[in-house]
UniProtKB/TrEMBL annotation:
Residue spans crossing the bilayer: 12-33, 39-59, 71-93, 99-121, 151-173, 185-204, 219-243, 250-271, 277-296
Major location category of this protein: membrane
Record-given protein name: Sugar phosphate transporter domain-containing protein
Keywords: Membrane, Transmembrane, Transmembrane helix
Superkingdom of the organism of origin: Eukaryota
Bilayer topology: Multi-pass membrane protein
Pfam assignment, any one: TPT
One CC-aspect GO term: membrane
Protein species of origin: Owenia fusiformis
Lineage of source species: Eukaryota, Metazoa, Spiralia, Lophotrochozoa, Annelida
Length: 323
């Protein structure tokens, strides 16, 4: 059977650039919509899910992936956590500075390790566990000493981290259980999550009447900005899927660190978020911990692959000798 031609270096660079740009733009654009137009959070999340659903239908028509039938009942817990993590991280963005929002997201790594250790009986090396110390201290220093510190914002960020960690763990479990890739899973998740949020919106955000979503006289600029956030959110999901499928974990991790730094910089420049020296120390401490974590995990992955590659080579040599 013929092998598919590997993508050109130029196309890889284009997709990496698209992912970096879209990931930064979606954070800053969401923040802009919240600050400028006061658009309701849960409704915005629901619209993102709807646009993603439509985008995936188009991707299916172009043969970018083959859908696989999945049991809706078993997808419900995953869709609920999907709703929760997007809603609470957006609430964190709405109530915190961009810097604090971005730094708090780094606590997802320690939270995932705790969940996998105590509930899924997975083990991690001492080196990996030690990287959680600078990450946690750095997050605390940046958040606590933020001039615009918000108790409700930190509460939303904390809940968002817990739900995001649970979601990411369950995504891995469900992909193994159903033998599907991320796009096949998202094809069911997105519309189901949008459907679930339709029942939640009326309880927290007025739909009609004074200040209602429908009755509010939104400007053309506001509607365009909201629709743009949905398109950019879909582009982020699509580019992440492509990068994971066509490049190495090292490439994806390095791109993630670049987005981390550039989003922080964008927040401080665009929204004039004030920053103290102790916060800068916390940011560098967190970034150092995240870089160390990525380095040790990739090192362990290479160590696991090396014996397998050697064994495969030895077996191939043995076959040639027999022939």
């Amino acid at each position: 059977c013929e092998k598919m031609a590997s993508p050109s270096q130029g196309f890889v660079s284009l997709c990496l650039g698209l992912n970096v740009c879209c990931s930064i733009v979606i954070v800053l654009l969401n923040k802009w919509v919240y600050v400028t137009y006061k658009f309701p959070n849960i409704t915005l999340t629901c619209l993102h899910f709807l646009v993603t659903s439509l985008g995936l239908v188009c991707c299916r028509q172009f043969g970018m992936f083959q859908p696989k039938s999945l049991p809706i009942i078993k997808m419900l817990p995953l869709s609920l956590t999907f709703c929760g993590f997007v809603v609470f991280t957006n609430l964190s963005l709405q109530n915190n500075t961009v810097g604090t929002y971005q730094i708090c997201k780094c606590m997802t790594t320690p939270c995932i390790i705790v969940l996998q250790t105590y509930f899924y009986h997975k083990s991690f090396s001492t080196k990996v566990k030690l990287t959680l110390i600078p990450i946690s201290i750095g997050v605390f220093l940046n958040s606590y000493y933020d001039i615009k510190f918000s108790a409700i914002g930190i509460t939303f960020a904390t809940v968002g981290v817990i739900v995001t960690s649970l979601y990411q763990v369950w995504v891995g479990e469900k992909q193994q259980e159903f033998q599907v890739n991320s796009m096949q899973l998202l094809y069911y998740q997105a519309p189901l999550s949008a459907f679930l949020l339709l029942f939640v919106i009326p309880w927290f955000e007025p739909v009609i009447g004074e200040g209602g979503i429908i009755s509010n006289n939104w400007s053309v600029q506001a509607i365009c900005a909201v629709l743009m956030t949905g398109v950019v959110a879909f582009c982020v999901n699509l580019s992440i899927f492509w990068i994971i499928g066509n490049t190495s974990p090292l490439t994806y991790n390095m791109v993630g660190h670049l987005k981390f730094c550039m989003t922080l910089l964008g927040g401080y420049l665009i929204f004039n978020d004030p920053i103290r020296m102790i916060q800068l120390g916390g940011i560098f401490l967190t970034l150092g911990g995240v870089l160390s974590y990525s380095h040790f995990k990739l090192e362990e992955a290479r160590t696991i692959k090396l014996p397998l590659s050697k064994r495969t080579t030895d077996e191939n040599k043995g076959r040639k000798t027999i022939l």
